[in-house]
């Protein structure tokens, strides 16, 4: 079922692999909508409840499923007794398909096979069955009534990360998102350094728990599975569904037009998706399964807890020669995903002796996976608190210490940075925040009952690109003021980040149309595949594919009107001629070769003529042969006379095509730029806190974050992303921690009343500065990821401010008041 126009096979496609720096058309287009703080184009649909989320779709004959979870942390199921359940009015079936109820797994950052363990249990909360009923209420009652007995409830589960640290094992580097690396002699470097520190930090497990719970409405049309689901990356998740169910990839369609957040927990598929698919198949009816909040927290993914060792060696001026970052994180047995805490440690500061080493421990706790800014979000707590501790030890201003340790190039690979704006971020942030007012002496500022302190941290996160495709169609539309609209098609998602809006801006600028003349079709795997929303690369990757499709359309339009692409301008639905064409190097070669070619053709003609005479070819045949050669066929008939060209209406031009539309595709691929240049977004975080002198209560008073992420597509949505990231930092520093019961492995705080996150009263005035930067190596738009950069370092800035306020260094997060008393 193709919901949207799938287009012809031979569709013109502009492809680009990022092997070299490129210019950006955005520097030339007249409208300059890109960058503007345009309000979300989908905002009114969302606030008026008209944007449908997966649980809100309804299909004829639909029934409801509720997952049932294991109540032991390790062991085997002995028996599932469903008699009592099936007696409940409305209950249709208890689905316990042993083939497909396998444990969920997260490899390389995405959940591969979803959950539903049937015989073997690896963690408390693991889904083991689904109860399907005519109503949600009956299914819920049925799920509660299901009797599950286990073979041995006392099998040894590993439920204490700290106690299991001595059993840490090596990581599987082949599937991880980072690698171990040693350069020089780090331990010797540490010993030989004039100044050194060697510290251990602990960060807790955290829950992704996005606002919209994971939900799937599955139905089958013959042998084809269609799923309305909540997911960040549709193309890869579609493949996971196909793999899990043994289907051909083209027999699966995922639809996720609106997604209420994911934070990494929807990078891959979640347990409810396969349960809904197999139940729908068994019943021959559409099945909707929505996970409850506790299930989301217990049976999707968590961010792993970490133990991190940071050791730094430097001279007495603070010039670092040694940087060691070793870590241990946890996951279910057999999993290869580890928390990549040192992703940015490889290149953040100078030092010829370097070491990054990862280890893991196996625990019977919620599956670990990617959570917003996987790696840096907690890695830069350790790195940036240690840098603060070093600055204090050296009696050097923390900003100055970082300035002295700016590497000229990536010290772990000896390749240049595409752009590196850490100093610009620190300077602009410090200025705005008023860093100079800081008294470096801890516990020196008591205001009323509050000890006040300020702190800072650097932020860095790698930038990348993922292969993405998009189609853009220009079509006549009489309902639009300019008689034309552009339709954008890709399976890219908008998880609340603003995809709909920034893609609209990109298309509007490149095609010279107003915002309301652009129509976005996102979130459906029947559309061209994109990398999806994850790793802060969605806007850059998908945006670039849309950019390239628009560029292809511009070239087709230029050709249509007999102009070179570099002499057209699209504005307000008009095509205009601007400037003079500059010959490209290819054109220059062709021009230079023309005389030679003419000469060759003449010689060849003589040869042919002689030959024709010798073999007695008829005169008429000779003539037609010669005509064909001397009057080259004009393949592109120009329908317009542009000798007095001013401008021409796009609607008129597109109206000339048979279907009254013109369609093109764009495809972006990562290339050599990713290997030859270290690409990263940088930032600087500043925080002021108050610590109550009696109760130890900690209040963040204000924060300033300055971030450089290349070209900013929309100052409003980018700023909002950064607000979100910095609020995440508050949660990470002061509140967030999931706690597993050490006796039975149950998640103690499995809802948002017990799992504490910042609420409005916890969030002070936050200032975001978007530092200007132009990076020609990233993609044709010159953008970089920024959302996750704004999380990095945020918690460290708060921790460092707390130290400045009270002189207590807490290396075990979250920093709750009991740790200050
Ligand atoms: Mo993000 S953790 O890549 O969704």
Structure overview:
This is Xanthine dehydrogenase family protein molybdopterin-binding subunit. InterPro entries: Ald_Oxase/Xan_DH_a/b, Ald_Oxase/Xan_DH_a/b_sf, Ald_Oxase/xanthine_DH-like, AldOxase/xan_DH_MoCoBD1, AldOxase/xan_DH_MoCoBD2, AldOxase/xan_DH_Mopterin-bd_sf. GO terms for molecular function: iron ion binding; oxidoreductase activity. Pfam families: Ald_Xan_dh_C, MoCoBD_1, MoCoBD_2. By secondary structure, this protein is of the alpha+beta class. Among the domains are: 199 residues, Aldehyde oxidase/xanthine dehydrogenase, molybdopterin binding domain (Aldehyde Oxidoreductase, domain 4); 200 residues, 2-Layer Sandwich (Aldehyde Oxidoreductase, domain 4); 139 residues, 2-Layer Sandwich (Aldehyde Oxidoreductase, domain 4). It contains 19 helices and 33 strands. Strands 4-8-2-17-14-15-16 form a 7-stranded mixed beta sheet, with helices on both faces. β27 and β28 form a beta hairpin. α18 packs across α19. The structure holds dioxothiomolybdenum(VI) ion. Dioxothiomolybdenum(VI) ion (MOS) binds next to loops. Dioxothiomolybdenum(VI) ion binds next to loops.
Could you tell me which ligands this complex binds, including any ions or cofactors? dioxothiomolybdenum(VI) ion
Q: Provide mean pLDDT, rounded.
A: 91
- Percent helix range: 25-40%
Helix tally equals 19
**Helix-and-strand structural type:** alpha+beta
The geometry reads as globular
Largest sheet: 7 strands, mixed
| CATH superfamily membership of one domain | Aldehyde oxidase/xanthine dehydrogenase, molybdopterin binding domain
Counted beta strands? 33
The portion of residues forming beta strands comes to: 15-25%
Radius of gyration over alpha carbons?
30 Å
CATH architecture of one domain: 2-Layer Sandwich
Termini, distance in Å? Answer: 63 Å
InterPro entries: Ald_Oxase/Xan_DH_a/b, Ald_Oxase/Xan_DH_a/b_sf, Ald_Oxase/xanthine_DH-like, AldOxase/xan_DH_MoCoBD1, AldOxase/xan_DH_MoCoBD2, AldOxase/xan_DH_Mopterin-bd_sf
Protein name: Xanthine dehydrogenase family protein molybdopterin-binding subunit
GO molecular function, one term: iron ion binding
Organism: Psychrobacter frigidicola
């Amino acid at each position: 079922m193709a919901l949207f126009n799938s287009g012809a096979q031979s569709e013109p496609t502009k492809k680009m692999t990022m092997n070299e720096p490129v210019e950006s058309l955005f520097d030339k287009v007249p409208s300059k909508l890109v960058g503007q703080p345009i309000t979300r184009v989908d905002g009114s649909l969302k606030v008026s409840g008209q944007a449908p989320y997966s649980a809100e779709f309804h299909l004829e004959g639909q029934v409801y499923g509720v997952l049932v979870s294991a109540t032991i942390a390790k062991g085997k199921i002995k028996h599932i007794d469903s008699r009592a359940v099936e007696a409940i009015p409305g209950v249709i079936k208890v689905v316990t398909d042993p083939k497909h109820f396998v444990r969920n797994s997260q490899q390389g950052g995405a959940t591969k096979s979803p959950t539903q363990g049937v015989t073997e249990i690896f963690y408390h909360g693991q889904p083991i069955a689904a109860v399907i009923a005519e109503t949600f209420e009956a299914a819920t009652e049925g799920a509660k009534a299901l009797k599950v007995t286990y073979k041995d409830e006392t099998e040894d589960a590993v439920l204490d990360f700290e106690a299991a640290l001595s059993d840490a094992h090596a990581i599987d580097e082949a599937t991880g998102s980072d690698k171990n690396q040693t350069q020089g002699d780090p331990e010797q470097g540490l010993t030989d350094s004039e100044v050194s520190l060697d510290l251990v930090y602990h960060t807790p497990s955290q829950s992704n728990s996005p606002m919209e719970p994971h939900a799937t409405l599955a139905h089958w049309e013959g042998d084809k599975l269609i799923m309305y689901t909540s997911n960040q990356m549709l193309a890869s998740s579609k493949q996971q569904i196909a793999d899990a169910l043994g289907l051909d990839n083209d027999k699966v369609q995922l639809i996720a037009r609106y997604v209420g957040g994911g934070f990494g927990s929807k990078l891959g598929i979640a347990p409810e998706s396969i349960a809904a698919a197999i139940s729908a198949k068994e019943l021959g009816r559409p099945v909707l399964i929505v996970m409850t909040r506790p299930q989301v927290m217990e049976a999707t993914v968590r961010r792993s807890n970490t133990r991190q060792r940071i050791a730094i060696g430097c001279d007495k001026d603070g010039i670092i020669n040694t940087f060691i970052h070793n870590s241990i994180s946890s996951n279910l047995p057999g999993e290869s995903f580890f928390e990549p805490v040192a992703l940015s440690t490889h290149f953040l500061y100078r030092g010829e002796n370097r070491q990054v080493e990862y280890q893991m421990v196996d625990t019977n706790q919620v599956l670990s996976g990617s959570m917003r800014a996987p790696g840096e979000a907690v890695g830069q707590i350790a790195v940036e608190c240690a840098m603060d501790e070093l600055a204090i030890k050296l009696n050097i201003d923390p900003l100055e210490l970082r300035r002295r340790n700016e590497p000229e190039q990536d010290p772990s690979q000896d390749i240049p940075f595409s752009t590196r704006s850490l100093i610009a971020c620190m300077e602009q942030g410090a200025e705005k925040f008023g860093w100079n007012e800081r008294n470096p002496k801890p516990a020196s500022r008591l205001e009323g009952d509050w000890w006040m302190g300020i702190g800072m941290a650097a932020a860095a996160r790698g930038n990348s690109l993922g292969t993405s495709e998009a189609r853009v169609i220009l079509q006549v539309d009489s309902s639009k003021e300019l008689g034309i609209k552009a339709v954008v098609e890709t399976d890219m998602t908008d998880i609340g980040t603003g995809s709909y809006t920034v893609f609209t801006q990109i298309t509007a600028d490149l095609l010279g149309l107003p915002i309301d003349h652009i129509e976005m079709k996102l979130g459906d795997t029947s559309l061209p595949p994109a990398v999806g929303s994850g790793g802060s690369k969605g806007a850059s990757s998908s945006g670039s594919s849309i950019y390239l499709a628009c560029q292809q359309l511009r070239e087709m339009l230029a050709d249509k009107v007999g102009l070179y692409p570099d002499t057209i301008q699209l504005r307000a639905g008009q095509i205009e001629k601007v400037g003079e064409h500059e010959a490209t190097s290819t054109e220059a070669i062709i021009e230079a070769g023309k005389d030679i070619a003419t000469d060759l053709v003449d010689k060849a003609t003589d040869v042919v003529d002689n030959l024709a005479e010798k073999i007695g070819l008829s005169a008429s045949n000779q003539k037609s042969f010669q005509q064909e050669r001397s009057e080259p066929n004009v393949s592109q008939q120009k329908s317009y006379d542009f000798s007095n060209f001013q401008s021409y209406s796009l609607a008129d031009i597109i109206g000339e095509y048979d279907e009254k539309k013109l369609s093109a595709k764009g495809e972006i691929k990562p290339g050599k730029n990713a290997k030859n240049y270290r690409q990263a977004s940088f930032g600087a975080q500043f925080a002021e806190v108050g610590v109550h002198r009696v109760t130890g209560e900690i209040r963040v008073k204000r924060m300033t974050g300055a971030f450089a992420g290349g070209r900013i597509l929309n100052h409003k949505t980018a700023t909002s992303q950064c607000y979100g990231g910095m609020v995440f930092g508050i949660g990470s520093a002061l509140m967030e921690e999931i706690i597993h019961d050490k006796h039975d492995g149950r998640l103690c705080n499995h809802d948002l009343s017990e799992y504490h996150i910042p609420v409005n009263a916890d969030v002070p005035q936050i200032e975001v500065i978007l530092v200007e930067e132009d990076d020609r190596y990233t993609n044709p738009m010159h953008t970089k990821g920024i959302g996750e950069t704004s999380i990095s370092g945020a918690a460290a800035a708060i921790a460092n401010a707390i130290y400045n306020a009270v002189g207590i260094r807490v290396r075990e997060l979250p920093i709750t008041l009991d740790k200050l008393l």
